From TrEMBL:
Similarity comment: family membership: Belongs to the L6 tetraspanin family.
Its membrane topology: Multi-pass membrane protein
Protein name: Transmembrane 4 L6 family member 1
Coiled-coil stretches: none
Key words, A-Z: Membrane, Transmembrane, Transmembrane helix
Transmembrane segments: 12-30, 50-70, 91-115, 161-180
Localization, UniProt: Membrane
GO cellular component: membrane
Pfam families: L6_membrane
Lineage: Eukaryota, Metazoa, Chordata, Craniata, Vertebrata
Amino acid sequence: MCFGRCARCIGFKLLILALLSIVANILLYFPNGETRFASEHHLGKYVECLHGILGGGFLVLIPAAVFIGLHNDNCCGCFGREDCGKSCAMLSSVLAAFVGILGSGYCVIISALGLSHGPYCFTHLQRNWMYPFTESSGGYLFEYNKWSECQEPRNIVEWNVTLFSILLVLGGIEFILCFIQIINGILGGLCGLCCGHEEV
């Protein structure tokens, strides 16, 4: 399979995943579609980390754009030698893939911490805004009867668990795709694009 076409395919997949991550992170800011909790600063600390917007979003869009444009990039011909230039471009894509690894890794870590820590909510027991599930180390995820402790925002546990889980999965897939491109970029750089002769 052509290394350049593989990179382009990975780029389009990363583009879609990055856009989905941005949307999921934005939704975290507006539980049940309400804006008042964000304006009143009643959001959890992991919601405000921008892990889906910055990490799984913009930092993954960078390598996505590089990979998509890589198929026709010959790195200025590398002193007039097209094969050398394409190898140079493939090797440079490895650096972009590392940026994607950092962004998606950040998204995965913050999502996992957000799931483990639990939501920030107004509880009926303490009559205050707090993190009621911090001590459970994620055990609350399987104790559905305790989710009703959070009164405001309504259904915040379900909202956070769903969106943090989505971001965790999206970040994990992005991480794997960027890792695949590191291998693809190294192989493409060392061996040259196998379809280079076909395109000429």
